[in-house]
Amino acid sequence: TPLHLAVLAACSIVLLCLTSVSHSAPLACENLVRPLDQLDPHRLEGRWAMVAGSLSYPPLIEQFKRRDSASANFSNITAESVIVFSRSKHLENKCYYSSYNVSLEGNRFTFYNGNITTTFIHTSCHDCILMSFDVESGKRLHFYLFSRRRQLEEKEMEEFRAQVECLNMPPPVVLDPTKELCPEETTSNPATQTDEKSETMTEKH
Ligand SMILES: *[C@@H]1O[C@H](CO)[C@@H](O)[C@H](O)[C@H]1NC(C)=O
Ligand SMILES: *[C@@H]1O[C@H](CO)[C@@H](O)[C@H](O)[C@H]1NC(C)=O
Ligand SMILES: *[C@@H]1O[C@H](CO)[C@@H](O)[C@H](O)[C@H]1NC(C)=O
Ligand SMILES: *[C@@H]1O[C@H](CO)[C@@H](O)[C@H](O)[C@H]1NC(C)=O
């Protein structure tokens, strides 16, 4: 039927395009590390476990490796574009928390007085978010993969490694999925208060 023919034609065009992309490295990279076209803020809501990350500044990598686990939590997602972005980090049996009011603008947000711009990058992993943290106007790049799962499929990790390679960044550090995440931050618990200093130490310098 004409419909079948049309579908067939469309499929072969897509296949042709896919094939030509895979033969041309720069194009493939452009495609692999493209920012998200559209971000549904409601999809962000809740907690995400950090699965792996790469940092462009090598001295920070050793420090990064010492963390047992890390998570991001987006909350207060309303019709307004200002949402709450919280992070936790488990390091040497302590939990460090930080929280920011951030303003979503399309596929990105800026925080820490404009020193960090975060862009959501495309990933084919269905329950992941991939964030590129551009620190101090591009001086450093932190490229972090978060998921609702603690551990991803090999295929998904391969895509992330390819993305990191496209950015010419050091091979990713994969976090140990058996290590516990920090418990939810509760304002009533003084042990779990925002630790701006620690966040500053590990992320900004
Ligand atoms: C949550 O969002 C609402 C509406 O944008 C705002 O009025 C409120 O202050 C926010 N709450 C927090 C804790 O940021
Ligand atoms: C975020 O905004 C709310 C409402 O304006 C405020 O109560 C809260 O202290 C802010 N949080 C941070 C981390 O700046
Ligand atoms: C950005 O970070 C640098 C270095 O940490 C600091 O000196 C500067 O004041 C920061 N700028 C803002 C706007 O926070
Ligand atoms: C995420 O942050 C919100 C607001 O601070 C909090 O109510 C919620 O419990 C947090 N969720 C997790 C899993 O930490």
UniProtKB/TrEMBL annotation:
Q: Which UniProt keywords apply?
A: Glycoprotein, Secreted, Signal
Q: What is its main location?
A: secreted
Composition-biased stretches, type Basic and acidic residues, lie in 194-205
Q: Where is the signal peptide?
A: 1-24
Q: Which Gene3D superfamilies match?
A: 2.40.128.20
- Name any GO cellular component annotation: extracellular region
- Work out whether the entry's keyword set contains Glycoprotein: yes
Annotated stretches, region: Disordered: 177-205
**A Pfam family of this chain:** ApoM
Q: Which InterPro entries match?
A: ApoM (IPR022734), Calycin (IPR012674)
Localization in the cell: Secreted
Q: Does the keyword Thylakoid apply?
A: no
| UniProt protein name | Uncharacterized protein
**Species this chain originates from:** Anabas testudineus
Give the classification, highest ranks.
Answer: Eukaryota, Metazoa, Chordata, Craniata, Vertebrata
